[in-house]
Amino acid sequence: MLFADKLGMPKKIKDLAESLDLEVTNHHDPEFDAKLCALIFGELTDKYPSYQELIRKIDDQPKTNNNYFNQPSEDVLEENEEHLSNYQITQNELENIDLIGKGIVITGNFSIERE
Predict the structure, then answer these.
(1) Which end of the chain is more exposed for a tag (fewer CB within 10 A), N or C?
(2) pLDDT of residue 47
(3) CB of 27 within 8 A of CB of 16?
(4) Model confidence over 33-48: pLDDT tens digits?
């Protein structure tokens, strides 16, 4: 979504997808959102056929002052409780994931508190 933000496009995945005429059928489902992000990236690369041109365009835009670290509301947590329980992993599982040689799409923002 940072790409979209820097390109002056909608910042929310649902709004951005709809602005690109992509169908949104299961918003907030992690698997669907990941696939939707891949489709959005594909649409952006269609608009900017040269990946370098896309990156240059993004780097030329001033950063906005958005707060990407909003906490979800209770309603959002309740609405997504099943997805959270199905996809949540422990810190140990996270530290032991082998991603070498695998293609992945990550949605959202991540932070680790450091001492």
Answers:
(1) C
(2) 78
(3) no
(4) 889 988 988 888 787 7
Q: Give the CA count within 13 Å in the CB-facing half-sphere of 28.
A: 11
Alpha-carbon distance of 97 to 55, in angstroms, equals 29
Q: What share of the chain is helix, strand, coil (3-state, %, to 5)?
A: 50, 0, 50
Q: Is 110 exposed, middle or buried (0-12, 13-18, 19+ CB in 10 A)?
A: exposed
φ, ψ for residue 31 (rounded to 5)? Answer: -65, -45
In 3D space, the residue among 12, 76, 69, 72 whose CA is nearest the CA of residue 40 turns out to be: 12
User: What's the CA gap between 88 and 111, in Å, rounded?
Assistant: 15
Rg of the Cα atoms in the chain? 16
**Residue type at 6?**
K
